Amino acid sequence: MIEQIYNYFSFDILYYWVNLGVLPFWLILIFFPNFQITKIFVTSIFPIFLLSGAYILMLYKSYLSSYNFLENFNLYLSINDLTSLFSNQPFLILFWIHFISINLFTGGWIVNNAQKYSINKTLLSIPLIVVYLIGPIGLFIYWIIKIFYSKSINLYD
Q: pTM of the entire structure?
């Protein structure tokens, strides 16, 4: 049975499950930022636990297929090396899970931080959607909104 589950989660299937699996967390963050369900399911360790499981499964599948993990460090050498790494499906999916995890963590942090300043949830949805799509810009938009609600500019929090 475990072998059937393992064989089911090919790179393509895992990619689809990770993309679909993260959507409920984002919908909860955007539409219910101040609810208890958000604290329990989204801003807790729960989604990170699930995404870590997917990441570990990908590492294991990559290891079994004789993936050369040392080549990953080539991404720091040049843009051409990075381009060639992105043509490698296991690396691309590992990167994607990494990207989705960090964006979701950032969205959870924004919701927690916004509660300190009582930021309007409708206004909060704008940076959350942008974080989902293009991470750092959404965080910057949230920082601008937070300046108006906190009435001060903090370079650290």
A: 0.84
